[in-house]
Design a protein that fits this description.
Helix 2 runs antiparallel to helix 6. 26% of the residues are buried. The protein has a single domain, classed as SCP2 sterol-binding domain (Nonspecific Lipid-transfer Protein, Chain A, 2-Layer Sandwich), CATH 3.30.1050.10. A hairpin with a 7-residue loop joins strand 2 and strand 3. A five-stranded mixed sheet has the order 4-3-2-5-6. Strands 1-7 form a two-stranded parallel ribbon. It has six helices and seven strands; from the N terminus they run E-H-H-E-E-E-E-H-H-E-H-H-E. It has 145 residues and is of the alpha/beta class.
Length: 145
């Protein structure tokens, strides 16, 4: 697979496929009755780029954001996403990441999510799944609005 542009339609499709076929994230969400629209994008952009729709703990869609209401909206700078895709995103760095505004929750309460161990584990697992996708982060994303 060639490299896909971060949060592009093909990238979101690949992310959805990884999610659907990952037994760990599905096990973590099983019986959690978790329903959410989770968006991903870049700090300073007016809208997120991509969204995953989870209904009753099952991924329904992974696609480009189309203006729907969101439960979670995660934003970071392109270079930060690039670093996480290569080095990973770990619980032990979460305090630093949030304190230094490397990850901003435009929508959603990360504290609530972190207090439910299976949801917190699924959150971190989703970042591990992102690492499986060959990704490029073009310079144009650094300036896109």
């Amino acid at each position: 697979m060639s490299e896909l542009i971060l949060f592009s339609e093909p990238w979101m499709h690949a992310f959805g496929e990884c999610w659907l076929h990952d037994s760990e994230i599905n096990r973590l969400l099983f019986n959690q009755e978790f329903t959410a629209s989770i968006a991903y994008g870049f700090i300073d952009n007016t809208q997120p780029r991509g969204v995953v729709i989870i209904n009753n703990s099952c991924l329904q869609e992974a696609r480009l954001y189309q203006g729907e209401p969101l439960d979670w909206d995660l934003r970071a700078r392109p270079d930060t996403w690039k670093r996480w895709l290569s080095e990973g995103f770990r619980l032990e760095r979460m305090g630093y990441i949030l304190a230094n505004k490397e990850l901003i929750f435009e929508q959603g309460d990360y504290r609530k999510m972190l207090h439910v161990p299976r949801l917190a584990s699924a959150f971190f697992r989703s970042f591990e799944l992102m690492q499986k996708i060959p990704t490029q982060v073009p310079q144009s994303l650094y300036y896109a609005a």
